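In the design runs reported in the main text, the only information available to the sequence generator was the tokenized backbone. The following block is the verbatim input for one such run; it is reproduced so that readers can re-run the procedure and compare outputs position by position.
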């Protein structure tokens, strides 16, 4: 059970709190110095926030650029594969033999037409 405290004790506690000396800045130089410190702190916080936002924007831009580059790489890889298959088809010996005989009317050389060179 709580004991009831006399009103006098409560009054003394309250008056003690009010009697404590608080430093109130009345000096104009101190006020100006405090204001300058607050402005500098605010500017620093703003610059840090702007730097953070700028870095995030750059990361997003670089991610888009990376995605575009990867897509372009995949497209070029597929085009290279198609061109490799087409080159293999165009350079096949049977196709070249057919073109030589049909379009250019070339025939297989006879043994006496072949000249061997010595090193």
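Verbatim output:
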């Amino acid at each position: 059970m709580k004991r009831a405290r006399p009103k006098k004790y409560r009054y003394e506690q309250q008056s003690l709190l009010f009697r404590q000396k608080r430093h109130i800045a009345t000096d104009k130089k101190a006020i100006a110095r405090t204001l300058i410190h607050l402005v500098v702190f605010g500017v620093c916080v703003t610059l840090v926030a702007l730097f953070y936002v700028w870095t995030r924007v750059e990361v997003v831009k670089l991610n888009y650029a990376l995605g575009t580059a990867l897509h372009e790489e995949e497209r070029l890889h597929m085009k290279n594969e198609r061109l490799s298959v087409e080159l293999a088809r165009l350079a096949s010996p049977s196709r070249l033999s057919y073109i030589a005989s049909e379009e250019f009317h070339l025939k297989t050389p006879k043994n006496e037409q072949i000249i061997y060179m010595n090193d």
